[in-house]
Amino acid sequence: MKPLINRTVVLKKIAGKGGWTYAEIPEILPDAHAPFGWRRVKGSIDGFEFNGYHLMPMGNGQLFLPVKAQIRKTIDKKEGDSIHVILYEDPLPKEVPEELLNLLKDDFEASKRFSHLKLEERKKYSDWIYSAKNEEQKVIRIAELINRLLKT
User: Fold this and answer.
1) SS3 state at 82
2) What is the gyration radius of the CA atoms in the chain, in angstroms?
3) For 60-106, how does the pLDDT look when each residue is reduced to its tens digit (9 = 90+)?
4) Which residue in 3, 43, 46, 79 could disulfide with 13, CB within 3.0 to 4.6 Å?
5) In what order do the strands lie in the sheet with 12-13?
């Protein structure tokens, strides 16, 4: 897979307390079909790998890559430092993932109710689950989906 970008950029910081540290990514355009124009990406920053990350809008038609404190601490970088960024598209699954369907099979009633939802509703739940920032949040969302299905 060809990267969207593979280059060195300079970390910047939004002024004020709690201001974000970020890298401008002008060559990647906002997604007109995503909330706020976000672009979901995966890749690495100075070798620190991540996935399920969103490029955020700057308000001028360009996107930026927020670089969280955990990443900055791990790579020992701060505002004004150069970082090497490699980004790839990280799309949500086009279909409801087999993994989710198999997990739902553990609860017959939840599985049955999920299968009776319209395809758009199943896909909406799938996107919500698989857009979680980490595995723990994904598990919590799956449990919440099962609870919702059993309450209907």
Assistant:
1) strand
2) 18
3) 889 999 999 999 999 999 999 999 999 999 887 777 888 888 888 88
4) 79
5) 5-10, 82-89, 39-45, 48-57, 63-66, 21-25, 12-13
Answer for the pair 131, 92: CB distance below 8 angstroms, yes or no.
yes
Phi and psi at 69, nearest 5°, equal: -55, -40
CA triple 21-82-56, angle to 5 deg: 35
Alpha carbons 79 and 88: distance in angstroms, whole number: 24
Helices (H), the chain: 69-75, 98-104, 108-115, 119-130, 135-151
Q: Burial of 64 by CB count in 10 Å (0-12 exposed, 13-18 middle, 19+ buried)?
A: buried
CB 30 within 8 A of CB 39: yes
Nearest CA among 25, 28, 108, 127 for reference residue 66: 25
Residue whose tokens read 């049955």: 112
What is the percent of the chain where pLDDT is above 70? Answer: 99
Using DSSP's 3-state secondary structure scheme, residue 48 falls into strand
User: 117: which 2 tokens?
Assistant: 């939802």
Q: Which two structure tokens, joined as six digits, stand for 93? A: 């699954």
pLDDT of residue 3: 95
